[in-house]
Amino acid sequence: MKWRTIFSSKTMGDDEEVKVFGMWASPYSRRVELALKLKGIPYEYIEEDLSNKSALLIKHNPVHQKIPVLVHNGKSIPESLVILEYIDETWRNNPILLSQDPYDRAMARFWAKFIDEKILSTARKVSFTTGKEQEHAIEEVTEQLKLLENEVKGKAYFGGEGIGYVDIVANFLVFWFGNLQEALGINIFSQHKFPFIFEWIQKQLKIDMVDECRIPKDKHLTYIQTRLAAFKSASK
């Protein structure tokens, strides 16, 4: 399935071509789209069936054969965190996603890596484990979220007063994570437990481009439940 999303912008020449190979339910894919929307960059979005990957996806990401992939004027850039930096360095209009200060840039990369390698990784463990193993994963992701809560405490956004790199990486908390825990029937993430993250979420929801990247809730719940049913069936 393929569709095209175009935004009016003065940041690109008419001869520039930007494509995103993604998957609608992927937080990694959504973050790339969000960065492009925030920058006002027109792009073509190509939806991938991950059970039957296209020849174009494999061509543009032969190493990992994964989404997302950004293709800019025929040049392919894989891996969402790498793509976000590429977008910021290529289109220097606001919002600037990464600070020019070396320390601030390093810490932004640290927290982005923490989110991907710890929080999202552990969230997958919560989804596809049972019993004691799942209980341990729930405890683990709760502690990880507490660290993120402390990082955003007292700030409008993770990078300061405006949306930036870490905010885009953490955007899965705005829609994706709530849908996941609803489908699982668990309550890890709530306003009572994480008031500062929820305050940050409210600021995100006021940004039109964030709402444009909203994952359709009913469709997402059905998708998660289908995957969970397949996991349980395979585990028997």
What would you note in describing this structure?
The protein is an alpha+beta fold and about 240 residues long. The protein folds into 2 domains: about 1-90, Glutaredoxin, CATH 3.40.30.10; about 100-235, Glutathione S-transferase Yfyf (Class Pi), Chain A, domain 2. Helix content is about 55%, strand content about 10%. The protein has helices at about 25-40, 55-60, 80-90, 100-125, 130-150, 165-170, 175-185, 195-205, 210, 215-235, and strands at about 1-5, 20, 45, 70, 75-80. It is globular and about 55 Å long. The two termini are about 35 Å apart.
Question: What's the number of domains?
Answer: 2
> What is the terminal-to-terminal distance?
33 Å
Shape: globular
SSE arrangement, N to C: EEHEHEEHHHHHHHH
Give the total of beta strands: 5
Question: Could you list the spans in which at least 5 consecutive residues all have pLDDT below 50?
Answer: 1-11
Rg, Cα atoms, Å:
18 Å
- Order of strands, main sheet, comes to 1-3-2-4-5
Tally of helical runs: 10
Write down the CATH class of the largest domain: Mainly Alpha
Structure classification: alpha+beta
The main pleated sheet reads as: 5 strands, mixed
Strand content: 5-15%
Helix percent reads 40-55%
Catalytic activity: RX + glutathione = an S-substituted glutathione + a halide anion + H(+)
Domain GST N-terminal: 16-95
GO biological process, one term: glutathione metabolic process
Subcellular location: Cytoplasm, Cytosol
Secondary structure blueprint with pairings:
Elements: E1 2-5, E2 18-22, H1 27-39, E3 43-47, H2 55-60, E4 69-72, E5 75-78, H3 80-90, H4 102-127, H5 131-152, H6 165-169, H7 176-184, H8 195-205, H9 208-212, H10 217-235
Parallel strand pairs: 2-3
Antiparallel strand pairs: 1-3, 2-4, 4-5
